[in-house]
Amino acid sequence: DAKTTQPPSMDCAEGRAANLPCNHSTISGNEYVYWYRQIHSQGPQYIIHGLKNNETNEMASLIITEDRKSSTLILPHATLRDTAVYYCIVGRSGSARQLTFGSGTQLTVLP
Amino acid sequence: DTGVSQDPRHKITKRGQNVTFRCDPISEHNRLYWYRQTLGQGPEFLTYFQNEAQLEKSRLLSDRFSAERPKGSFSTLEIQRTEQGDSAMYLCASSFGSDRGAFFGQGTRLTVV
Question: How far is residue B100's CA from residue B12's CA, in Å, rounded to a whole number?
Fold first, then answer.
């Protein structure tokens, strides 16, 4: 599976959009981009995933560049409860769904 | 609550003892995964079941680790002859289908003293 690169930490003001970048320059054609987050002392929580097209759900939006070498997770109106470590993961469709978590981005939402 | 359930939430054991953890996945999910997470690191994949078949176990950390899912529903992870280095959070996740996100439980925190 391709590796990902994320900034180790980011801050965001409450109520503002949080834009979390991820580089995955070695992604292959059948690999999806997944985003999870982990609030302290809890299990990871699935947020969203996509292949090529931008995706949106009730939690977030995922913007994938046309060359698929990078993506951005957008939390449109960050709240204090969004403070967590956010993991960007690239994984193959149809294979064993083991997810290779990196170190993630610690997002801190500030009041 | 119909999420992934893990038991116990915390376990303290003496070095050399065996421990077993249980995971109850979301009921309609056919895939079940075990991960381990040490402090400050992301979760690390251990093994994976589709129904009762264990399809990937090469990432189990040693032959002291084993997992079962006998009826394709709940699963157990056993660690024999525990060592201090086994201290970690053990996470279970489940999913339905190959392309959907996995849903994680709250984990079992193991401390080996």
Answer: 34
The long-range contacts involving B57-61, CB below 8 angstroms and separated by at least 24 positions, are B59/A98, B61/B36
pLDDT of B79 over the 90 cut: yes
pLDDT digits (tens, 9 = 90+) for A5-34: 999 999 999 999 999 999 999 998 888 899
> Which has the closest alpha carbon to B79: B13, B25, B6?
B13
B34 at interface of A, judged by CB pairs closer than 8 A: no
Query: With an 8 Å Cβ cutoff, is A32 touching chain B?
Result: yes
